[in-house]
Amino acid sequence: MLTLTSPVETWAHPLPAGLKLAALALVTTGLFALKTPLPLGLACLATALIYLSCGKSFATNGLRLLWPLWPFVLIVGLWHLWTASPAEGATIILRMIAAVAMANFVTMTTRLSDMLAVFQWLARPLRPFGLSPRRLALACALMVRFIPVMLDRFGQISQSWSARSSRRPGWRVLVPVTLAALDDADRAAEALRARGGAG
Q: At what angle do helices 56-66 and 133-164 cross, to 10 degrees?
């Protein structure tokens, strides 16, 4: 639970965590500056090529991590078809896929300890205010790590619902997803306590 780093070593693994996080921030900002489907489609293609440059196994795992996005893609797509604005819907969907894929790439190629060190360095100016940089860094690192985990858990619960009912899951899976999130948080807290806490 505490690490989603890919065991498949790639050219991106040795790169500094700070460099990858800074690049992710710039790329994500750039994605929001793009307003039409064509450039965002090219951004998705470029992202796919980056994954493929790391090998077929790595790219397959990255694609699997994107699967939990399908409910959001479906909802956004149907809504914009209903409102007769398919271009706007395609823009939102492509931007979402590219942003999540790039965030997953950074997560898959960065060790939790390296990410923690970057967040801790960024939080150092808050020390005079009585805030622990290490605790803040740990909270930020865990948040980044848990996003793909919770998307995957949402997909699993939705699939379980669909296997047992002909009705669409919709809001009905919110309670089990919330309980799963709390359970995962509790397990993560137990693991941290077993390793000496947040420091």
A: 80
- pTM metric for this prediction: 0.70
Domain residue limits, the chain: 13-110, 116-199
pLDDT of residue 22: 92
Distance CA 34, CA 160 (A): 37
Mean pLDDT of 89-117: 88
Residue 3 DSSP symbol: -
When mean pLDDT is compared across 7-11, 120-124, 126-130, 171-175, the lowest value belongs to 171-175
- pLDDT tens track for 111-138: 877 887 887 888 888 788 777 777 777 7
Kindly tell me the burial class for residue 93, based on how many C-beta atoms sit within 10 Å of its own C-beta (0-12, 13-18, 19 or more): buried
Of 68, 71, 76, the C-alpha closest to 94 is 76
Structure tokens that stand for 168 in this block: 């669409």
Helices (H), the chain: 17-33, 37-52, 56-66, 70-82, 86-108, 112-122, 133-164, 174-194
